[in-house]
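Example record

The entry below shows one chain as it appears in the dataset: sequence first, then structure tokens.
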Amino acid sequence: MSHKLRQLVLCIGIPLAVGGLSGWVTRGAMEDFQALNQPPLSPPGWLFPVVWTVLFILMGIASYLVVRSQGPEKQVKRALTFYGIQLGFNFLWSILFFNLGLYLVSFFWLVLLWCLILLTTLQFSALDRRTFWLMLPYLAWVAFAGYLNLGIFWLNR
């Protein structure tokens, strides 16, 4: 396997591993989630893992483009640091929301996550403009998730 292909596989594998671990840690909470009052426009439960898988692949490709960019090493490192932090926040949101049922706390956590994703996207796109389009669906989905999160808090107080 070539060096570039190994890098691509690793870059895609990291967010997929984070998502897989998140799904494993929260696996028992989906029944409780389905029993909650849902806000309008709530998608069916089966759609969430599909969307998240696509988003993790897209952000993995974006991180690969950053790793392969010809940008200054310091700038690449900073962008990848933001990326790692937002992945950690993404993972912890699932625990706050699904395992602990802290719906209001998880909403504010999600707002912070969205800001971190935006900062990551800006850092990435400064190194490779294509990454903006790869990260945009993630920003949009997390904004939608914020609506769902706040709606669940409100409807289940």
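Notes for this example: The radius of gyration is 16 Å. Residues 18 and 88 are 8 Å apart (CA to CA).
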